[in-house]
UniProtKB/TrEMBL annotation:
Pfam families listed in its UniProt record: Glycos_transf_2 (PF00535)
Higher taxonomy: Bacteria, Bacillati, Actinomycetota, Actinomycetes, Micromonosporales
Species this protein is from: Catellatospora coxensis
Record protein name field: Glycosyltransferase 2-like domain-containing protein
SUPFAM superfamilies per UniProt: Nucleotide-diphospho-sugar transferases
Glycosyltransferase 2-like domain ranges (all copies): 9-132
């Protein structure tokens, strides 16, 4: 190992898992990348240092540094400390339970050497099983020859995964940029303000939050995917109940920080579904704006009593109608503000009982089943009544297969009453109002 400055810093947080870290380090010793070109920085997040003593004192073919935080401050704090200690111009974030395929670091470095500007490379983390673990423990190379269908990374179970990644990354690549295997320039992390340590020692979203902020600067073009920059996740025994609680608490923090349509939709089974839905709803809202659909002024005369009170109104043209004191809007045709959020309405920062009425003009018709159900449940907690406004006529001609929307109000009325027997339907020519009151 030479005394030169490494190009790439591999940054690993750890907490109470020296046993898996030892395996991870062994796979980093087997990298095809010249060890003079990279270093490994491990930061112990306040766990007992004794089990790490042997690893910290060992000799490695690459430059190695081990540091500890004074207490369990969380992955964000541990990774921030690793970034501060890093000597490389590039950083590759790995978890302490990820076994690196021999070409992983070489592929990360080659990617950045081939880019003109700062970028984020998302690698793959297969879900390893006992066979993969046995191979690693036996000192065998952890190569892609071990991959079986059962190992597939949950993030990338999408058509065209490797041949056309831009199709599923498009719109929200930050959803996939988890720090179990991702690289970027160190300066990019610093310029983004590092990881937000408010996520604490809870599990989840500190890496999604950083990637979200970086995406605001770099855009889609600044993110890429390489399925051959791969690692394997060591099997684990986890407390899924506590992890689910951590996830929900940090998800709420993430949404409150960013208050955007993308942030509210991130709670999905798989990232590929998140990006698809973000693209779908952005197209739907753009269609409304372009064609003049979902406009409140055209139906305001039918909603006089509702609009005079505190109302949460999802529509376009809301600034053209006088709304009651304490009202707020989800109007994507106006600039965002404290009282006009660019949300879909499946999550909201407003507490239960804030409004007298929640009104949606046509936008609700674009919602898929999951989002419409969540929208109604949330709205009926926030207000005494929900009014869904359906406008027929020219608007229906605008809907296409790419932007599907409900076009059968009578059938929808039957669906609505099956779930909400108290719902009623009022017809006013080309306008139908579906009213649902809290039971």
């Amino acid at each position: 190992m030479s005394g030169g400055v490494p190009r790439l810093s591999v940054l690993i947080p750890t907490f109470g898992d020296a046993h898996t870290l030892a395996l991870t380090l062994s796979t980093l010793c087997a990298q095809t990348l010249d060890p003079d070109l990279f270093e490994v920085v491990v930061v112990n997040d306040g766990s007992d240092p004794l089990p790490y003593a042997e690893l910290a004192a060992a000799a490695y073919p690459f430059r190695f540094r081990f540091d500890s935080l004074p207490a369990n401050l969380g992955r964000a704090a541990a990774r921030n400390q690793a970034v501060r200690l890093a000597a490389g111009e590039l950083v590759c974030f790995l978890d302490s339970d990820v076994l690196a395929e021999p070409h992983l670091l070489a592929r990360h470095l080659a990617f950045h050497d081939g880019r003109d500007g700062p970028s984020v490379l998302i690698g793959k983390r297969y879900e390893g099983d006992w066979a993969v673990l046995a191979a690693a423990q036996a000192g065998e190379p952890v190569t892609l020859d071990l991959v079986r269908p059962v190992h597939e990374d949950f993030r990338f179970r999408v058509p065209g995964r490797d041949s056309e990644p831009d199709q599923w990354l498009s719109g929200a690549p930050w959803v996939f940029a988890l720090t179990n295997n991702v690289s970027m320039p160190r300066r990019t992390v610093l310029d983004a303000g590092l990881f937000d340590e408010a996520y604490g020692a809870r599990w989840g979203f500190e890496d999604t939050d950083l990637a979200y902020r970086i995406h605001h600067v770099l855009g889609d073009a600044g993110f890429a995917y390489d399925g051959l920059a791969a690692g394997f996740h060591v099997p684990a025994v986890r407390d899924l109940t506590n992890l689910a609680g951590d996830y929900q608490e940090n998800l709420e923090l993430f949404r409150r920080k960013h208050r955007s349509l993308a942030a509210e939709l991130v709670d999905m089974p798989a990232p590929s579904d998140v990006t698809r839905k973000i693209r779908h709803y952005r197209r739907a809202l753009a269609c409304c704006a372009e064609l003049g659909l979902g406009r409140l002024p055209e139906v305001s005369s039918l909603l006089g009593a509702e609009l005079a009170g505190a109302v949460l109104c999802q529509a376009f043209g809301t600034d053209e109608v006088a709304l009651g004191q304490g009202s707020a809007t989800y109007d994507h045709g106006r600039p965002e503000s404290e009282t006009n959020l660019h949300l879909l309405g499946v999550w909201s920062p407003y507490p239960d009982g804030t409004f007298g009425t929640v009104v949606s003009v046509d936008v609700w018709r674009f919602m898929e089943q999951r989002e419409l159900s969540r929208f109604l449940r949330l709205a009926l907690r926030q207000a005494r009544e929900v009014v869904l406004v359906y406008t027929s006529g020219p608007a229906e001609k605008a809907f296409t297969a790419d932007v599907p929307a409900l076009t059968s109000p009578d059938f929808f009325g039957s669906l609505l009453r099956r779930r909400y027997p108290q719902a009623r339907t009022d017809h006013f020519g080309d306008v139908t109002l579906f009213r649902v009151t809290a039971s």
